[in-house]
């Protein structure tokens, strides 16, 4: 049995928390507001393609976590929060984490979260990860709807280099726990490369879906929008070189094929627009724009869509 702390019981974090707990692991989650109150009172209800699960979970807010628990009470801490909150949450937990050795795994969008974690805890306590082929959202307090394979890919940050790396046995235990819970899981020797490959999809469809209101299938099968999707994916390939991750046109083609054949899903960024929540613009588009410009390239598609999204948000807030 593993002891998990999952920071953020949203569509992704809540899905994994419920499945792991149902398989017998000890799982605590953090949440806020009505969602937290509902989980505390009635447990978490998960609806997904494989069925429906009603799972009791120990749920707390962040202040209670710091006050009532120790970081060493857990085998691993999983960040499943929005990328824009990573720095603030890590700063708030700085003292709480300082005297422990527990590793932190990021299961978030973007390619910068692991760097934030490592800057505070060091590479030896940082695990990179991504959730693949999953769409998940809170549809009511205490209720999550999810679809897709929900595969987890994880690895030593920034990549695996040493047979004696103390993170490897833990990654093996985590993979076994995911497998027992019915969650496909892989250990990557180059997690930074895997994160950039996922960013191809994130940058390709998330911002454009938020701007147009269209789901992933509508975008990738539309004569005009599909060209924009491919253009934004190409700009991720260019940007990756700034981090020493040399993606290729083959990576772009594979990711476009994957998302165009996947279920028609409403992206997390579109859901955030509908619920008037902060968007992960900087974590997704901003990372691409910044790195392209470092390389002396102008990411026309990504920069344009990012500007339009920011203007749209500004108009909504007036």
User: Could you spell the SSE succession in H and E letters?
Assistant: EHEHEEEHEHHEHEEEEHEHHHHHHH
Question: How do the strands line up in the largest sheet?
Answer: 5-2-1-6-7-8-11-12
* Overall SS class: alpha/beta
**Overall number of strands:** 12
First-residue to last-residue Cα separation: 50 Å
Description of the structure:
Helix 4 runs parallel beside helix 6. The chain has 318 residues and is α/β, with parallel strands linked by helices. Helix 1 links the parallel strand 1 and strand 2. The strands form two sheets. It has an eight-stranded mixed beta sheet, with helices on both faces. Strands 4-3-10-9 form a four-stranded mixed beta sheet. It is globular, with a radius of gyration of 19 Å. The model has no long low-confidence stretch (mean pLDDT 95). The protein has 14 helices and twelve strands. The N and C termini lie far apart (50 Å).
Write a concise keyword list for the protein shown above.
single chain; alpha/beta; eight-stranded mixed beta sheet; four-stranded mixed beta sheet
Element layout with pairings:
Blueprint: E1 3-7, H1 11-22, E2 26-30, H2 33-42, E3 44-48, E4 51-55, E5 58-60, H3 62-68, E6 76-79, H4 86-92, H5 94-98, E7 104-106, H6 113-121, E8 126-132, E9 135-140, E10 143-147, E11 151-156, H7 167-180, E12 185-187, H8 191-212, H9 216-220, H10 225-240, H11 249-261, H12 268-274, H13 281-294, H14 300-317
Parallel strand pairs: 1-2, 1-6, 2-5, 3-10, 6-7, 7-8, 11-12
Antiparallel strand pairs: 3-4, 8-11, 9-10
């Amino acid at each position: 049995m593993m002891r998990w702390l999952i920071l953020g019981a949203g569509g992704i974090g809540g899905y994994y928390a419920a499945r792991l707990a149902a398989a017998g692991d000890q799982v605590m989650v953090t949440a806020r507001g009505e969602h937290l109150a509902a989980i505390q009172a009635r447990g978490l209800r998960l609806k997904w393609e494989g069925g429906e699960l009603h799972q009791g979970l120990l749920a707390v807010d962040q202040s209670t976590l710091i006050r009532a628990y120790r970081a060493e009470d857990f085998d691993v801490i999983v960040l499943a929060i929005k990328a824009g909150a990573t720095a603030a949450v890590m700063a708030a937990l700085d003292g709480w984490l300082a005297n422990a050795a527990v590793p932190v795994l990021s299961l978030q969008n973007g390619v910068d979260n692991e760097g934030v974690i490592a800057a505070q805890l060091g590479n030896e306590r940082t695990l990179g990860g991504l959730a693949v082929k999953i769409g998940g959202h809170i549809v009511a307090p205490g209720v999550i709807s999810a679809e897709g394979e929900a595969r987890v890919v994880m690895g030593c940050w920034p990549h695996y280099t040493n047979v004696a790396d103390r993170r490897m046995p833990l990654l093996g235990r985590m993979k076994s726990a995911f497998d027992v819970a019915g969650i496909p899981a892989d250990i990557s020797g180059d997690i930074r490369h895997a994160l950039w490959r996922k960013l191809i999809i994130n940058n390709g469809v998330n911002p454009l879906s938020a701007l147009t209101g269209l789901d992933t299938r509508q975008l990738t099968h539309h004569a005009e929008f599909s060209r924009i999707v491919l253009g934004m994916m190409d700009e991720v390939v260019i940007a990756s070189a700034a981090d020493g991750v040399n993606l290729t046109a083959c990576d772009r083609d594979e990711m476009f094929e994957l998302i165009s054949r996947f279920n028609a899903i409403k992206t997390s960024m579109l859901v955030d627009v509908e619920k008037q929540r902060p968007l992960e613009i900087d974590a997704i588009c901003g990372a691409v724009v910044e790195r392209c410009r470092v390389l002396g390239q102008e990411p026309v598609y990504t920069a344009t869509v990012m500007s339009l999204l920011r203007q749209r948000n500004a108009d909504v807030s007036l």
